[in-house]
Specification:
77% helix, 0% strand
């Protein structure tokens, strides 16, 4: 189980690095657009559109990393007052429900990408096919879904075995 957690840890770090590259690209593009518009009166064509879609990709890829490293707010008032074994089972059941929900969301996003492909819609300025961005969003949610499923497996193992395999060492999280 520890190997599964370590392997997943490496995957989420990789997606986080890719998201970081897109974020850096966004920042450079925004700064370049400001300089070009202010000093040369020649803004970069389609920069708003590029930043919008690159931000979408950044956010969708960062979702799994955020989930894996515990970046989400957790409401643990009830869980904290219950016995440890009972709380492990409740967390396991909640993770199963979340896994099912995100499988469905990923499925809906995949269907939306197929519909966009069939419709042949394009972005307004750059005339990029919209289905590409739906596919990238679906991939980001698929990675998040896999992350939640891996966490569910580890939570189930912890609940059944009584052990406490941790998801990750948060000190190694990519900031």
């Amino acid at each position: 189980m520890k190997k599964l957690a370590d392997s997943a840890d490496k995957v989420w770090r990789a997606t986080s690095l890719v998201a970081s590259v897109f974020l850096l690209f966004n920042m450079c593009l925004i700064i370049a657009n400001i300089i070009m518009r202010r000093f040369f009166n020649a803004p970069i064509f389609g920069s708003t559109e590029i930043v919008s879609y690159a931000s979408l990709i950044t956010a969708s890829l960062a979702l799994a990393q955020n989930e894996w490293f515990g970046g989400n707010i957790q409401m643990t008032l009830v869980i904290d007052i219950l016995p440890e074994r009972v709380s492990k089972y409740i967390v396991f059941i909640v993770n199963i429900v979340c896994s099912c929900a995100f499988v469905f969301i990923t499925y809906l996003l995949k269907n939306a990408a197929v519909k966009q492909f069939a419709a042949g819609d394009y972005t307004q300025d750059l005339k990029l096919p919209l289905y590409i961005f739906y596919i990238l969003l679906a991939i980001g949610f698929a990675i998040l879904t896999i992350c939640i499923i891996v966490k569910t497996i580890i939570c189930g193992y912890n609940a059944i075995s009584g052990q406490n395999v941790k998801f990750t060492d948060k000190s190694k999280a990519v900031d």
